[in-house]
Amino acid sequence: MHGLTHVTRKGRRRMVLGRERGSVTTIVAALFGFMVILGATSLSIDVGSLMWERRQLQAGADAASLAMARLCALNANECQSAAMTAAAGSGMSIRDLANTTANDGTNGYSTTYVNGVCGNAPAGSDIPECAGSALADLSLCPPVSPDTPESANWIEVHTRTRMNDGSTVLPPFVAQTLGFGGQTLETCARAAWGPAKLSGGNIPFTISACEWENAGGNVDGSGAGALPPPPYGGTAPWPSSSQEETLWVNVPASRRNPAPCPNFQGHDQPGGFGFLETTSDPCVVRSFGNGDWYHTDPGGSVACDLSRLVGTVVTIPIFSCTLDDVPAGGGAPPPAEPCYDSANGTHAYYYAQSYGRFFLSGYDVVTTGGIPNKVRSVLTGRFPVCPGGQSCITGWFVTGVGDGGIVEGGGGTFGQVGVQAAG
Q1: Predicted confidence (pLDDT) per residue in 29-77, tens digit
Q2: Nearest one of 302, 317, 284, 311 to 392, comparing CA atoms
Q3: What average pLDDT does this structure show over 15-25?
Q4: Which band of pLDDT confidence, cut at 50, 70 and 90, is reported for residue 363?
Q5: Backbone angles phi, psi at 418, to 5 degrees
Q6: Buried/exposed 257-278: b ≥16 CB within 10 Å, e otherwise
Q7: In Å, how far are 127, 323, 324, 335, 342 from 338, measured between CA atoms?
Q8: Which of 107, 142, 186, 273 is deepest in the core (most CB within 10 A)?
């Protein structure tokens, strides 16, 4: 019995030791699992924090690049690095605008460039060229997008992490327990500007590039002579009476062919008088081809109610070529195609190389039905003076930023610019 009892006690001791070893293994495994879970949780929390930081930085760069491009497009003289910190009309600078996208109200800017801006800026700007682009390096912009015309200017804004205490390192929330000290993130956004891609005209007249020149603009369509758009009053005063221009719908001989314009750009087609075919009232102008060709209306009157447009900004096609038919494909005239001024007005088509926006202050035009033939200028209170029974409209060209993107800049802007994201 004694021997049996001894054997039984030894067996119990082994069982107890086995259970203790099992408990230790379980505890070790649990601790190891907890550490794995803690590490995974730490990484997921901090990776999420980094992603959220990058989104805020990117939003700030996007907003700032578009704002800088718009500023540069409207006034090349102000296209300087200092514009990032200059207070705009709202009292908020472009940098302030970018800061509003950050959860803590502040975004930093890369010190590689002054105020974080670089680009393909116009002559006279102090904004430097950018070092390069890359698809994999998120601190650089990707290559210029293919829908950006080669002639376009563009601006890049480079942002980076900035905390309220001035630190440029985003601290970890949990992963610091694993020795992670934080990270500085950098992002980039690019915006381009150039001649605006505008929709077709909404007034049944067209003018030539030389008529634009006569109205205070430059024949190259640089936009000189265009005034700020409405609303007017208060801090945005009305133009002076001397700035009100008269556009003849059928150009008098005394106003034709200012040098260096070719003859066809100096006047409208015989019998056409610059009137365009409309499809309905109020003034829906019919376009052809790619949307930039307009058919002349040989009638000597206008069938849509222009009085509804007085006091508003209208879009006028600015033509560079006249043909007796729209070219195959409906696009720009082929380079070898001779533009001329001898087509019969009934058959003439005008090609709009660009568009100008014009504040219509009044008019004196032959109309049909009960439409008023004359409307006094909202600026001077006087009827337009159209010598020799000519039809004319009064007003001034205005600057503006279109929302349809930009086009190749060979035809000039005529006061209208487009802004778009470019990478």
Answers
A1: 444 444 444 444 444 544 556 676 678 878 888 988 999 998 888 888 8
A2: 302
A3: 49
A4: very high
A5: -115, 150
A6: beeebeebbbbbbbbbbbbbbb
A7: 42, 8, 11, 8, 11
A8: 107
Question: First-to-last CA distance in the chain?
Answer: 92
Q: How far is 352 from 366, CA to CA, in rounded Å?
A: 24
Highest mean pLDDT among 50-54, 174-178, 283-287, 344-348: 283-287
**Main-chain dihedrals φ then ψ at residue 278, nearest 5 degrees:** -115, 155
The model's confidence at residue 138, banded by pLDDT at 50, 70 and 90, is confident
409: tokens are: 């800049």
Residue with tokens 């070898």: 336
